[in-house]
């Protein structure tokens, strides 16, 4: 095949040049020229303009789609994050730090999908077939319909897809794939963009569900300038702490479901295991009588989870008071401390504060305010809270406790885990008769709540 012509396009102004230039002669921007394949313009009849036999405007009501079309992966934590299963012809990008477990997850998913009738083509540019086999043995994957293909050349991969006609395609990873028509180096922006566009094409035209692994670069974005996120259907981040076994799969973009869903896994010797009740893990190591510890019911997408918030308040020895947070928003903590000072007369300006959400989660919804305040006051007063009570509520600047969403689900989850008492905003208007198994205390202001609790 004749080598396709390529050109360089300025990402800022769209200026086109046949050569690579450091600085765009049109807008003056530096390092913005990215290589692209020049698609020949068909001068006869441009098919996309004239022959529209395969796509016509149609009535919304006439479009057929039923939820059954989604395929369950057999891993329910992943299905939840995807919005109920894999949509045929969709492209899912799974990003994460190297070594977090992306290949492990996708190999397990491939094994499951292949077992339930689909044909899976697992393309790896990072490991050889025998290395993948070794891993598959450890993960006890025996599916017959799983094909391995250690390859990085996109034209070979294209041919393999045309020949094998898989239902599912896994590309591990996008950064190792090479579009031979481009002169740019493997892993460069031009390559990654071309490869992703190509995979998107394959997904849409052939109805193949594609999973693409993308390594996160130092800056935190997938493949640098977030170039892939807008191109694909779904973006999932696999995160967690390399020092802990827990991994969280988080959806940040989903054309076929809600975002902010999380799935939890535990990395073991035999691969990733689903964690179906994360609350138990987050509360597992909690000390019963510790001071500075309060439990909150926080929503992660549609799922309530109970998390312990810890705080340590100690007098500042010199200089300005320090505020340090892990898994919580720094500014929010400062606001709550200011409110406690002004509205509840708790003198915190000469105290250092350290706050932490345990279990490696990040909490950033307003409903955690009340639990943060209680953890702070508990440490300040050196008085522990009852181990079977928890808190939900947003705190306003005048010290009022504000309504939160999805309160019924939060209360149910607390009751399910054996909590006896939950403090909720009085404005939420809960009918206590709906929840006989837990005592519900409606609270109005932070000052009164502190008097009630301590
Ligand atoms: P991997 O899936 O290769 O990460 P990624 O593709 O995101 O770079 O996961 C690698 C880590 O997972 C490695 O440090 C070893 C660990 N691991 C286990 O603990 N148990 C297992 O069964 C497997 C396969 C991996
Ligand atoms: Mg890998």
UniProtKB/TrEMBL annotation:
Positions of the RecA family profile domain: 67-216
PROSITE patterns: RECA_2
Residues that coordinate or bind ATP: 96-103
CDD domains: RadA_SMS_N (cd01121)
Superkingdom of the organism of origin: Bacteria
Family the entry assigns: Belongs to the RecA family. RadA subfamily.
Name of the protein in question: DNA repair protein RadA
Organism the protein comes from: Bombilactobacillus folatiphilus
